[in-house]
Amino acid sequence: MTRRGTRIRLALGVWGVLLSQVFLYPGVEDIVVALGGSGTISAGMWFLVAEFAAFVAFASVWGAASDAVGHRMPLAAAGALGGAAGYLLLAAAPTLGLPFAAVLVVRIVGGAATIGAFSLAITALADLSGGNGRNMGAAGIAIGLGAALGSVVGGRLADADPLFPLYAAAGTLVAVAILFGTVSEELPSGDRLGIGEVLGRLRKRPALGVPYAFGFIDRMTAGFFALVGVYYFRESFGLDAAGAGLALAAFFIPFALLQYPAGVLSDRVGRAIPVVIGSVCYGLGIVAVGVAPSLWLAIGAMVAVGALGALVAPATMALVTDIASVETRGAALGGFNVFGSLGFLAGFLLGGTTTSSAGYLAAFAVVGLSEVAIALVAARAVWRISESDYSWPDTRTGS
Fold this sequence. Notes:
Helix content is 81%, strand content 0%. The protein has 15 helices and no strands.
């Protein structure tokens, strides 16, 4: 298999995992009610929080395990199958008479499996030569397209039957597991270390804290849109689940399509400009969505925010691979996903609680200005890392 073919298959795997996950978002209110929860934003918040709590706990464990054994794909396939089983069990919950508390436990177990498929597929992309920005751009476009299609299709599935998104998610993850079985890995040369040694070496790379911080805030905004954005468009503009899915797609489509060129751009100009300037504009765009007086202005702001997010995301992930050594790359990207998942949790919790207590406008302002703040506070550190002698750009030949 050519390197380009490997990159495409891995990107398809990332796309499939995100597709399965986002199927649930537009109709989360209806799904929660069908599974025994209330229709409030609080119940939807805890339904999403349960999965991401598992992401936080297990992302680095999967990464460190793959570094230790020297293989990513068998573990990634196992994670995808475990996630599929979790979705099927959720779909069976009403028949089995499971209370909503048990549903949340199933979400935790399924999330612990699914994060292995997601994180290790991205790590396998990072293992490929040809430029860290290029590889992370491929991951980014897969994430964005998966989220875009998932939000549209998931909304229509939920309108037909609240359990249909769960079945679709399970089937997608089974297909992802089969796909991972066809991928030839390209792990870089390096010592095989034990899990403890891998994590120990990561602690000696404090510069990773900078992209981790940006990853936290960026994913916080994504978590915010996944929960509050859906309720905002449904309650403020009277949309159904399918309409809310289309509103989310207005963000995710430009976010997807521009990631690969943005990743290549960051290989050429460095990471600082996309990360810092992009984050400031991205945060202000989020505020603009919340103050838009009409549906079409809000949709237009979502398109702009998606484009700006595409500028930031691949450069931030590439910064992680620039800093990490080859022996610790899996754990380093796992750590990035830990902070990203913490960001999702923060987006759910901060967005949900702020909306409940102060309304949608305050929630959009708090989340958007948080993105601006991290860019201003960490700007000097990003410039210093970008100008250091880390390994980017990766100029090894390959396509």
